[in-house]
Amino acid sequence: MSEVCPGQMDSYxxxxxxxxxxxxxxxxxxxxxxxxxxxxxxxxxxxxxxxxGVGAQTVTLARRNTGARFVSVxxxxxxxxxxxxxxxxxxxxxxxxxxxxxxxxxxxxxxxxHLFVCYVLEHLSDPSGALAALRRxxxxxxxxxxxxxxxxxxxxxxxxxxxxxxxxxxxxxQARPGGNSLIGRELYPLxxxxxxxxxxxxxxxxxxxxxxxxxxxxxxxxxxxxxxxxAREQALQMGLTDKxxxxxxxxxxxxxxxxxxxxxxxTFFKATAVK
Length: 275
Hints:
By secondary structure, the chain is an alpha/beta fold. The chain has a single domain (18-274), classed as 3-Layer(aba) Sandwich (Rossmann fold), CATH 3.40.50. 40% of the residues lie in helices and 23% in strands. The chain contains ten helices and eight strands. Strands 1, 2, 3, 4, 5, 6, 7 and 8 form an eight-stranded mixed sheet that branches. Helix 8 packs antiparallel against helix 10 (243-258). Residues 1-10 and 12-17 have low confidence and may be disordered.
């Protein structure tokens, strides 16, 4: 992996483990229709996917827009290799992968027809700077699509003190080095400040209960709880929690996902705008 720019966090808060890569794919699968039923690009369009990671979103974009071409970049060479392997296994030929830093994109001005950014801004200490850098490579009247979550939108039942404690630990772990897991609510002003026109925000709420077992399993048990679980060591090192409280909170989140009485709700925000 190349050096991280001053505008970026020193590390991806969830880490680069095989388990995290698996979690990203589980998340993409669980909410694919919710987030992407209206993600469409015209044939011949050239799209920059900034921060593609392991390709969890890339394969959906490329499959649904076979006539478009994608350049998918990430700062992590390891993640890019996984994304490239996944795309090849899916038989995708309309994606080109390249290592690049969002804050120093190696592309000419107005090189792309459209931009796509998903779960990236929340990990940057300078999201406004990232959007400005992306705007430079977008053609006049071209569009940007940004998808981010907002951890403050989460609520569930039973909402025990320990489960809420570990959830809030994750928010603090991400905030300490400069990230913002509450960024979904800020997309409108961020896009406006970056100079984009006509920003439109579409909240996408995920609601799960035992009547939707596949969603409860795929989103809560395989995506959300492992995401929280991955912050354990950092939360302990920062003195935000203790081992016993953390273990109880994580256990209760897993129990919620398996319970007949458990419910879980979370909101993503999908934003579009033009240059």
